[in-house]
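Tutorial sheet, problem 5. The four components below are modelled jointly, 436 residues in total.
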Amino acid sequence: MSDIKEIIAALLKFRNERDWEQFHNSKDLAVALNIEAGELLESFLWKSHEEASKEKVQEELADVFAYAFLLADKYNLDVKDIVLDKIRKNGEKYPVEKAKGTAKKYNEL
Amino acid sequence: MSDIKEIIAALLKFRNERDWEQFHNSKDLAVALNIEAGELLESFLWKSHEEASKEKVQEELADVFAYAFLLADKYNLDVKDIVLDKIRKNGEKYPVEKAKGTAKKYNEL
Amino acid sequence: MSDIKEIIAALLKFRNERDWEQFHNSKDLAVALNIEAGELLESFLWKSHEEASKEKVQEELADVFAYAFLLADKYNLDVKDIVLDKIRKNGEKYPVEKAKGTAKKYNEL
Amino acid sequence: MSDIKEIIAALLKFRNERDWEQFHNSKDLAVALNIEAGELLESFLWKSHEEASKEKVQEELADVFAYAFLLADKYNLDVKDIVLDKIRKNGEKYPVEKAKGTAKKYNEL
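Model answer (structure tokens):
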């Protein structure tokens, strides 16, 4: 079993033991993901990036991943496929010769 | 190579070809993750969860995963380890006998 | 003094007594606003809109407003002017005859 | 009429002309606020705080305020009252003698 399948299986087991599927509609999963992304961001508030606590980042990033994987599962999306597909699309929006060394958005290149 | 290692390798290749590592400090990666989480959430705005477009969810979820994987790489965190570790900790905060069938937060159980 | 000026004056007094201006650059204020927006959203997680606690909404909405007003002050923006200006612009993007009764985005109308 | 009442009246007029109250339940307003907070944050992505465009900040901050005011109206909350009340509470969590000059969270002071 791939590592991603293993993670999702563990998340679903945890959820089903608690009978939480009833709460996990896709909209609330996206809401939960945003809340956790905000908690992750709190690791960096009023700080430079070097000053964040790795332990806090780890805890909150794990929560972000948990809801992201649950959402992928909800929509039957293969995580590797959708990320590699997005990289392909971004390669068209950000061709190396235009995007190299600049942080500009594609519509400003 | 595991799926996750393969995804991260593809993301780093994309980034390094464009010389973007200079912009990818951990704080800005967390900022980027929040922006993408907000775009994902937009799929559900003014809608019930059934009405969201799967295509839009897929596009935005891929972006969320991209920045989450880049952050994990930045801190040398193993994604499977940190998610399984968090599930273990959540198991203590949400024991089955207390948490079953309720959406209450652990401090209200 | 207008009510908005009064609120901003109280926020600045609180901040300056604590010598916190040094932390309140505009980027971290925007980060703080996002974190608070996430906490506000938590009032609604796994719930219908009727089930949210008004007390929690009030607490978190107050924090959102605090950082929004501090950001407006940082950029010398007049809150009434910028909101009324945005309403004017949105009136052009969402003309009544096209937008009435639909939640579609302006680029889908 | 106070500035805040005037802003809210203009927002409600805009909304009611378009018959949008049906979409504006409190949960979706909080979702919309998070999306706009994310767009505001995008002004600062991959940038130092000095490099953000004031025009973009103004546009997105206006949207944040719009949904924050609509939420306050939805719950019949007086914006000045709730912000001043929160400042009072924060004064207890962050007494000047402990909090002066430090960005630590109240539970770390």
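Marking note: The radius of gyration of chain C is 17 Å. Full credit if you identified this.
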